[in-house]
Design goal:
The chain is built from 10 helices and 9 strands. The chain has about 300 residues and is α/β, with parallel strands linked by helices. Among the domains are: about 50-135, Leucine Dehydrogenase, chain A, domain 1 (Rossmann fold, 3-Layer(aba) Sandwich); about 160-280, Rossmann fold (3-Layer(aba) Sandwich).
């Protein structure tokens, strides 16, 4: 992919008014890059099937009937089909117990026809989500939700990345955002988004500050960031006045009415680059999921 950047990005100095950007932020759109990633995954899936007869297969597990979760699962299944990746759908009732869910995930982990497993989250509150995630074979954890995946990201070892954090890094790289030496502030500390994206940024030689609901003087900390990753789950939470001029803003939130965690209208007047919602991080998440599913199928077929 030809880089979407028109020039090499440099970060501004908030103490030097001459360094402030004079134009509205450029958009970091994930749609085209994601489409390219999916097309390449489809080519690899076809090559695998042609050579071995094995069709890469992603199993999706949905517990309950939450409309948003059901929509996400259908979207992922449709994208899988378009990429030539098989899809196995498992829908369990909302009253499913942790033990029953764990048993289903272990069954899928042992199924040689299944190469990747996606447990749609969040699961109902009565289920131990961590226990469910850990029932997934790390070799099939194409969503990067197990402790094995987190350790691999933290130590820079081979393994599947958490899809949204991994997609964010790929987007930053595509837009030539300099990560080495940059100060990145992550707002949020979930085990499948906030924490792993910080680990991946650290592995790229950024200096990382984690912030969360207990952080004091949050706006002042965000103001020091060259790169802001908003993953807090609150609409319009990050205001434009919090940002350093020219900062790169990654909005990983998705709330009602297609609203992100960043106040987009305010932020575009200050930031240098910003992801829209929708069309920014979201497409990258699904693209990486499919890419990793094909990689899992390739690895399992080679070692079978």
């Amino acid at each position: 992919m030809t880089s979407p950047s028109n020039h090499t990005l440099t970060f501004s100095n908030p103490d030097d008014p001459k360094s402030a950007p004079r134009e509205a932020a450029r958009l970091m759109v994930g749609t085209d890059l994601a489409a390219e990633m999916v097309a390449k995954a489809a080519e690899r899936a076809k090559a695998l099937k042609d050579a071995t007869g094995v069709e890469a297969c992603l199993a999706t597990v949905l517990v309950g009937d939450d409309p948003a979760s059901a929509t996400y699962v259908r979207m992922k299944q449709n994208r899988s089909k378009k990429a030539g990746i098989g899809s196995l759908s498992v829908v369990l009732p909302a009253e499913t117990t942790t033990e029953e869910l764990v048993a289903e995930l272990r069954k899928l982990s042992e199924d040689p026809k299944v190469h990747g497993i996606l447990l749609q989250h969040p699961v109902p509150a009565h289920i131990d989500e961590r226990a469910a995630f850990e029932a997934i074979d790390p070799a099939k954890d194409v969503d990067g939700v197990t402790m094995h995946a987190f350790a691999a990201m933290a130590f820079g070892e081979p393994g599947f990345r958490s899809c949204t954090p991994g997609g964010i890094i790929r987007l930053l790289e595509a837009y030539d955002v300099p990560l080495a030496g940059a100060h990145a502030v992550v707002i949020g500390r979930s085990p499948i988004l906030g924490k792993p994206v910080g680990m991946l940024l650290l592995a790229s030689n950024a200096t990382v500050t984690y912030t969360h609901s207990k952080t004091r003087d949050l706006a002042d900390i965000v103001k020091t960031a060259d790169i802001v990753v908003a993953a807090v789950g609150k609409a319009n939470f990050v205001r434009g006045s919090w940002l350093k001029p020219g900062a790169v803003v990654i909005d990983a939130g998705y709330n009602e009415n297609n609203t992100g965690d960043v106040h987009f209208e305010e932020a575009t007047l200050v930031a240098g680059l910003i992801t829209p919602v929708p069309g920014g991080v979201g497409p990258m998440t699904i693209a990486l999921l499919l890419e990793q599913t094909v990689a899992a199928a390739e690895a399992q077929t080679t070692t079978a």
